[in-house]
């Protein structure tokens, strides 16, 4: 969100300038801008025509929707023909389409190497990380849509607020009451324990799993695979100590916690970081049972 | 952010072509579960019409003239019932096999092979169903 602030101030200063009485220079500049826009449109149309005729292009069908633009309030699919280059990912193709044909095409991306987790999309009917999905692995035309089960804000951008709320609900940070004696002493974790939580630490908060989960779609209160995986990452960390683990188990064994999972394996299938989510959820279920079953 | 577009839940089952093994297993398990519950109540309703047979004389029962035997014989005489029985067996067998698979999943055994175990339970269900056909259909024609 912080990256958007300077842009907004920029825009507001621009509109300020436009409301000032127009001088001759301003008129000329406006005329120039209009001509440039016309030329750009014409060039884009020519490019698109050329690309459509070319055989070595990829056909992209991209979901478009924008509540603030009159012509886009009704969701539709736009077709883009993008010249294929070896190693091209879905994100590369989208960026080409945006830069060459339609600068209003909106999608989130940042690192382009499957680390930031901002470009999870619904590609050919599956939740994929666009920067990690090779065009050559996909059938044409490549259908790109925003993540299902989330509200679309614009084009391929969905509202992630609910997902972040669920993630925060499991307190996704290290907590402990057992501190080492010396002030400068480290809180060491043994190798086996690190190995156990290794996969669960890989989550990049992309939201693909949450989007693929049928149960999460029907039950808004369900924590969802990503949040439970986060809880697993800390509950299984031995450095946190028994009382914190107890607290974590109380969060995940609530009605809308681990018990909502019906082992569909959808989340495990779509996870771009190959985290065995169902595995972790099932293990937490067993932990929760063991925690509550007492025979004495 | 003031407006957003909600595509609803409809897309879910419209996309069945893209479902993975685990999703199919989930759908089939739900479906077969409901079919079995439906069958259970039909079963109770139909068989309870045969309750008067408990008061029938020994001779009538031996001759097969009591209500219970009559009901069963007339039902089994219908080809449709014979075919439905094959279907019932298929549904029950799949539910049992997939149930076993889910039990293993709950115990955390073989989660990597969950898709293979689903295919295995499908194939086994098919084999058992085909093998049962002669028994169920015998004498129906």
Structural overview:
The complex is a heterodimer of chains A (296) and B (141). With 296 residues, chain A is of the alpha+beta class. Chain A has 2 domains: 54-157, Ubiquitin-like (UB roll), CATH 3.10.20.30; 161-175 and 191-292, Alpha-helical ferredoxin (Fumarate Reductase Iron-sulfur Protein, Chain B, domain 2), CATH 1.10.1060.10. Chain A contains 11 helices and 7 strands. Chain A has helices at 4-19, 24-53, 90-100, 161-169, 191-197, 208-212, 214-218, 225-235, 242-252, 266-270, 277-292; strands spanning 57-64, 76-83, 120-123, 126-129, 142-145, 152-154, 157-158. In chain A, a hairpin with a 2-residue loop joins β3 (120-123) and β4. Helix content of chain A is 43%, strand content 11%. In chain A, 34% of the residues are buried. The termini of chain B are far apart. Chain B has 141 residues and is an all-alpha fold. Chain B has helices spanning 11-14, 21-48, 58-63, 67-76, 79-106, 114-137. In chain B, 71% of the residues lie in helices and 0% in strands. Classes of the chains: A alpha+beta (296), B mainly alpha (141). The interface between A and B is medium-sized, with 30 and 28 residues. Chain A: Its cofactor is [4Fe-4S] cluster; [3Fe-4S] cluster; [2Fe-2S] cluster. Chain A: Belongs to the succinate dehydrogenase/fumarate reductase iron-sulfur protein family. Chain A: Residues 1-53 are annotated as: Disordered. Chain A: InterPro entries: 2Fe-2S_ferredoxin-like_sf (IPR036010), 4Fe4S_Fe-S-bd (IPR017896), Beta-grasp_dom_sf (IPR012675), Helical_ferredxn (IPR009051), SDH/FRD_Iron-Sulfur (IPR050573), Succ_DH/fum_Rdtase_Fe-S (IPR004489), Succ_DH/fum_Rdtase_N (IPR025192).
């Amino acid at each position: 969100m912080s990256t958007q602030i300077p842009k907004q101030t920029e825009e507001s200063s621009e509109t300020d300038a436009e409301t000032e009485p127009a001088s001759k220079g301003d008129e000329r500049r406006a005329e120039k801008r209009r001509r440039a826009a016309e030329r750009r449109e014409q060039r884009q149309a020519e490019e698109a025509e050329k690309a459509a005729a070319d055989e070595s292009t990829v056909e992209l069908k991209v979901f478009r929707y924008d509540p603030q633009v009159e012509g886009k309030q009704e969701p539709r699919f736009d077709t883009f023909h993008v010249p294929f280059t070896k190693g091209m990912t879905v994100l590369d193709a989208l960026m080409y389409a945006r830069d060459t044909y339609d600068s209003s095409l909106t999608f989130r991306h940042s690192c382009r190497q499957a680390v930031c987790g901002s470009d999870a999309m619904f590609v050919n009917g599956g939740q994929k990380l666009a920067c990690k999905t090779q065009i050559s692995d996909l059938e044409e035309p490549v259908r790109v849509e925003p993540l299902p089960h989330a509200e679309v804000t614009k084009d391929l951008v969905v509202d992630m607020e609910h997902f972040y709320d669920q993630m925060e609900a499991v307190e996704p940070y290290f907590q402990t009451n057992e501190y080492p004696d010396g002030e400068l002493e480290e809180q060491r974790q043994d190798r086996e324990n690190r190995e156990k939580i290794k996969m669960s630490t890989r989550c990049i908060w992309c939201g693909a799993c949450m989007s693929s989960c049928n149960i999460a779609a029907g039950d808004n209160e369900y924590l969802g695979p990503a949040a439970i995986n986060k809880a697993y990452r800390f509950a299984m960390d031995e450095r946190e100590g028994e009382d914190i683990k107890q607290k974590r188990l109380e969060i995940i064994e609530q009605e809308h916690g681990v018990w909502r999972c019906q082992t569909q394996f959808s989340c495990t299938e779509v996870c771009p970081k190959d985290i065995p989510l169902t595995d972790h959820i099932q293990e937490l279920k067993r932990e929760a049972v063991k925690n509550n079953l007492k025979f004495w | 952010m003031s407006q957003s577009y909600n595509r609803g839940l409809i897309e879910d089952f419209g996309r069945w072509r893209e479902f993975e093994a685990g999703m199919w297993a989930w759908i089939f398990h739900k479906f077969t579960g409901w079919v079995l519950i439906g069958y259970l109540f039909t079963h109770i309703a139909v068989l309870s019409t045969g309750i008067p047979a408990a008061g029938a004389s020994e001779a009538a029962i031996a001759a097969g003239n009591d209500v219970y035997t009559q009901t069963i014989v007339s039902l089994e005489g219908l080809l449709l019932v014979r075919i439905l029985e094959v279907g019932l067996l298929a549904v029950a067998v799949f539910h049992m096999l997939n149930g076993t698979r889910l039990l293993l999943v709950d115990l955390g055994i073989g989660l990597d092979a969950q898709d293979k175990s689903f295919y295995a339970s499908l194939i086994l269900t098919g084999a058992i169903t085909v093998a049962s056909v002669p028994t169920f259909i015998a004498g129906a024609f």
